[in-house]
Design brief:
It holds the Pfam family LicD. The protein has one domain (3-284). 40% of the residues lie in helices and 18% in strands. It has nine helices and eleven strands. Strands 1, 2, 3, 4, 6, 7 and 8 form a seven-stranded mixed sheet that branches. A two-stranded antiparallel ribbon has the order 5-11. Helix 1 (3-25) runs parallel beside helix 9 (271-284) and helix 4 packs antiparallel against helix 7.
């Protein structure tokens, strides 16, 4: 494994452990998700070529986490969402690390925190009816696309594309920044007062973002890089939905990650410092193998 990638993974693990510390202190429920869940099941740690960490929370726990971060999250950790940074368009938050760099393609010119991060996804109720589900998915995709256009995530020089984008974003173009985000959040959370069979991650509205509503109800823990973290009991169903035959390694040409343009570990480039920080978390890590 590339030594730089391995250091990046361990620095992300430090961020996850800080998030876990806050969650344990405030009894906030979360689970590993996506490639991180797959890594826990198949590798008992990171997928060797992976370069990020994903965790998920029910929306109510996500809001509690945001509230706890006001007092618990201190430098060098930084909370990034659409309220803290205008040019950050995604409907989920990142916890970033100051004085580091993990630069993604197409985002280098954006006025956002570019530090090493982990993703935290809230899950909202997904409507049961076909028509309401279609409308809901359309609105979710529209708000993400519109905000991406308005924040210049996908610049274009084509006058026709510029005209199309201008017209397509007219319904939200003249909203204030906070008003835009608040309306988007209302759309995402519209069904949270109703009981539904499914939940969906506040992410990119792909079919793989939709899970059974009880995904957070039954939780166990699995080892991940010598620590234990919460995972859904039905992780087999989750991973099969996401990846199909998830225990079979993909061919080398399909082993993809974010393809970061630039990584700067800052003071965390020293493996001795990384291990010292991990050891400090290990002494206070409460989550045990059930």
């Amino acid at each position: 494994m590339n030594n730089q990638l391995r250091k990046l993974q361990l620095v992300q693990l430090i961020i996850l452990l800080e998030v876990n510390r806050i969650c344990e202190k405030h009894s906030i429920r979360y689970i590993l998700m996506g490639g991180t869940l797959l890594g826990a099941v198949r590798h008992q740690g990171f997928i060797p070529w992976d370069d990020d960490i994903d965790i998920a929370m029910p929306r109510e726990e996500y809001e509690r986490f945001l509230s706890a971060c006001h007092t618990e999250l201190i430098p060098p950790f930084h909370l990034q969402n659409s309220f803290t940074e205008r040019d950050y368009v995604y409907p989920f938050l990142k916890i970033c690390l100051d004085d580091t760099l993990a630069l993604e393609e197409g985002k280098s010119d954006l006025a956002i925190h570019h530090g090493i991060w982990i993703d935290i996804f809230p899950y909202d109720n997904f409507p049961d009816g076909k028509i309401s589900a279609s409308v809901y998915l359309f609105l979710r995709k529209y708000f993400l696309a519109a905000m991406s256009v308005l924040r210049n995530y996908f610049p274009t020089t084509s006058p026709f594309r510029k005209l199309y984008r201008y017209c397509a974003t007219l319904p939200v173009r003249y909203l204030s920044d906070n008003r835009f985000v608040l309306i988007r959040e209302q759309v995402y959370q519209h069904y949270n007062t109703r009981q539904t069979k499914k939940k969906i991650a506040a992410a990119f509205s792909a079919k793989t973002d939709i899970m059974d509503a009880d995904i957070f109800d039954d939780v166990t823990s699995l080892p991940f890089e010598e620590f234990f973290f919460p995972v859904p009991v039905k992780y087999h169903d989750v991973l099969t939905n996401l990846y199909g035959d998830y225990m079979t390694l993909p061919p080398e040409d399909k082993r993809q990650n974010h393809g970061l343009l630039e990584i700067d570990l800052g003071m965390y480039g020293d493996m001795t410092k990384i291990h010292r920080l991990l050891s400090a978390y290990k002494e206070t890590h409460l989550l045990k193998n059930p």
